[in-house]
């Protein structure tokens, strides 16, 4: 499908991935972007680029239907992305909200829906090169299970209503603007709060933001992608030690202390209990510790084959660009 001259609705356009996607489509791909946003004030930079701003929330079906009117392509990037959250609140956004987007896309005759999911749907199997033949699985964790259920909503619409869908499953997205794997990391290093788990030998699964956006553009254009789920990852995992040291070098920190996994897990539990007592949120919990103890990695072979895509930016170049952005934004001197 040719996307130049088309109208694309993006949910979550004021977020990290949605914002990068909106800017790329509006300024480089000749697409008229429409953004469904909860905060028009936060969307002001997008409006300045010519993006059409529609106030509303994906939990409001009428607002979603209005935003989808006349859209050729729908990118559903809005999500409750926090591991911590009330189950009902997470489900209302990630599952019921996805159902509203799907319903609107069907009702308004969208030519394609691209759903932003996550490699989290595999349920942390602790295997290498997990590919799309591996079925998603529930784990009892709100975020993970909501992403599995949201995918089922999307694929049901494809099977039962004929909606042309593509499900993109990014791994761990880093780069300019990433709250989780760039901003939070550099702030923690500057504050002296980084402790590696087991010496940082376990796996970070990178996808540089520009590589992800390249793939998402192709998800809208390549016919063979319709009906498919695609892992979007840079490929080979990077040890957490290398990941943190790449950021550490930006601020002159050469190494980090380490703790064995059992001790780190116990500390995560302690911080959770302390949070419940004080009512203050902690950035450390057992889920975070498990992330640093993960042996997973994901295959991008299907995305390469189906989309004709390959990651253009490797880890060293991605970190160089990320450092430049951090300096421009004042996170680094």
Structural class of the secondary elements?
A: alpha/beta
Mean pLDDT: 95
Order of helices and strands: EHEHEHEHEHEEHEEEHEEHEHHHH
Instruction: List how many beta strands DSSP finds.
Output: 13
CATH topology of the domain at 7-174 and 207-235 and 296-313: Rossmann fold
Q: Numbering strands along the chain, what is their spatial order in the largest sheet? A: 3-2-1-4-5-6-11
Verbal overview:
The protein is an alpha/beta fold and 333 residues long. The chain has a domain at 7-174 and 207-235 and 296-313: Rossmann fold (3-Layer(aba) Sandwich), CATH 3.40.50. The chain contains twelve helices and 13 strands. It has helices spanning 16-28, 44-48, 61-68, 87-107, 142-161, 179-190, 209-221, 240-250, 261-278, 286-291, 301-307, 315-328, and strands spanning 7-11, 32-37, 52-55, 73-76, 112-116, 165-170, 172-174, 196-197, 203-204, 206-208, 228-232, 238-239, 258-259. The protein has a seven-stranded parallel sheet, with helices on both faces. Strands 7-10 form a two-stranded parallel ribbon. Helix 1 crosses helix 7, helix 3 runs parallel beside helix 4 and helix 4 packs parallel to helix 5 (142-161). The longest helix has 21 residues, at 87-107. The radius of gyration is 20 Å and the shape is globular.
